[in-house]
Amino acid sequence: MEQDAYREAGVDIDLEAAAVKSLISELTYRRTDQFGMASEIGHFAGFISFGKYVLAMAVDGVGTKMLVADALQDWSTVGIDCIAMNVNDLYVMNLEPVAFVDYIATSELSQEQMRQIGKGLNEGARQANLSILGGETATLKGLVTGLDLAGACLGIQEKEKVISGSAITPGDCMVGIPSSGIHSNGLTLARRMVEQHGSYSDRLPSGATLGDELLRPTRIYADAIQVCAETAVHGMCHITGGGLLNLNRLGEFGYVFDAPLPPQEIFEWIAKAGQISEPEMYRTFNMGMGYVFILPKEGVKTVQKYFPDAQIVGHITGTPGIRLNGKKLF
């Protein structure tokens, strides 16, 4: 497979970006009274002015990872994924998550599925220290098949403490934090590889099954808030769908990875099974790095204080582009 493997599996990243751009082009209205919009659409989260604070909102879902849960008849951790994908998008702007609502769309209700989803949502809320205020469950037979789980998260921060990436400077260090695995992105391609080249019960060298790895919950990077409280952080990035391309949300800099974190074995299996090129792997998956801090070198020890597995993975230059081990990826 060449660089269109993800497209052939059913997800066209370039088309998705163009479609979202078309949607955003029509979103021109802004509230005219107090509590107006205080950010542009397109960053990891949007926010409104609220006195000395900003209130932020993020929305995301579990995606086709739900199909893996269906295949394994195990929905106990997808709630963690749902909360993680939301709160991690708030942490990158130093926004503290405080409340969450979920949305479940299903073709047919199951008490056992709902119980297990609730278990995961509760654990995700505990890890992120937020309250689940409520949600909506919709039975949409004929419109959806199976089960979909999404949610929206509310965050808060003092205005002057919000981190947008505007302070990023050439020479800054990039510090990578390992992911727990595949997280909740690229599952359409990953599932296709399993269906074509193996089964969910096949074992990797570690002994874990492919199903275990694809269902492993997304890591929640809650301690990012503490890092920002103790040292100057110029930018942060949550590596989600689009892989390293997410860094471009922070500005047109050169993101040079000369010591990338090693990808977990699930990524090695996917690449080998589908003969997928390195650039496509890095534009589809997190490839072992779920979160990045961009900051002066003197702040690295603070990151490692809260994330002992953190490592310097590269640096910022003034020449736009994303480079990996001396080669330009994008």
Task: Kindly describe this structure.
With 330 residues, this protein is an alpha+beta fold. It has two domains: 31-161, PurM-like, N-terminal domain (60s Ribosomal Protein L30, Chain: A); 173-328, Alpha-Beta Complex (Phosphoribosyl-aminoimidazole Synthetase, Chain A, domain 2). The chain is built from eleven helices and twelve strands. A seven-stranded mixed beta sheet has the order 7-9-6-10-8-11-12, covered by helices on one side. Strands 1-2-5-3-4 form a five-stranded mixed beta sheet. It is globular and about 45 Å long. The model has no long low-confidence stretch (mean pLDDT 93). Belongs to the AIR synthase family.
Notable traits:
alpha+beta; 60s Ribosomal Protein L30, Chain: A; 2 domains; five-stranded mixed β-sheet; about 30% helix; about 25% strand; globular; cytoplasm; purine biosynthesis; phosphoribosylamine-glycine ligase activity
